Amino acid sequence: MKLIVLVLDGVFDTGLATVLDALTTANELADLVGSPGPRFHVSLVGVRSEVRSAQGLSVPVTAVAHCPTADCVIVPAIGCKMPGPLQQALARDDVTDAASVLRDWAAAGTRIAAACVGTFVLAQAGLLDQHEATTSWWLTPLFRERYPAVRLDSRRMIVSSGQFVTAGAALGHIDMTLWLIRQTNPELAGLVASYLIVDSRPSQSAYAISDHLAHSDALVERFDRWARERIGTAFKLDEAARDLATSKRTLARRIRDVLGKTPISHVQDIRIERAVHLLKTSDTSVDSIAHTVGYADGVTLRTLLRRRLGKGIREIKRV
User: Fold this and answer.
1) Residue 14 and residue 86 share a domain
2) Do the Cβ atoms of 88 and 19 come closer than 8 Å?
């Protein structure tokens, strides 16, 4: 399988290294699953002749004009983690040129995968319009604002839609690369994951800090604070809208735009977050914690914890 890694100036060092190390490991382990010889041929390609990583390391790249054809193009993140610097980076000439090249590859039917902030580069090129996608959880509000035509679900770690594959935050690069390996050889992907000690992480929800996202919008921040102050009582959207001096429709729309969820779903996330904290830091019974966070009994809380946290529930011994 021929792969191109499109490396932009200021590339996130860990993201690039993770992609390359996972693919190299797959090649090294191929014999163990009865698939001799290198499986992945990787070319580092740039839209500029000189590329440096976010940490200032020189990255040897082949010019786009001289790059080989490929089965898949991978776009690692740019090393800008906050909205301000990221928007400045997206306005750079080399990113504009990269978007043009990506559109050409897409038109030729090439699969394109991007992780973390790399998903912004794909969206900037217009390639994700009307497609499902994910991105770094904390950049969800910015992504929704810039690319409203993308069907974003930032709760998921990996989203495959048509010829495009997007992955979540930072170390989502490894999830994306394992997904690509799995399309060729599931057994090999499992072996690479075992060697690199990578657990399956289908969701970013367990890592997302809802309070961080809520602070990006004044009304959503007020709703978040209102819900936390009433965590042990039944949630009523009418009451929330009245207390916050807004309409139910406006409140629901703003929460959806910022957090990508319904008001009741956010309230449930707050309750789960508080319950997990209490389970980890106190000896209080599950039933008592359930009442504290607004659920009728421990059975309901246990069910929600298992559904929301998946394998991560093993860290909580009492559930």
Assistant:
1) yes
2) no
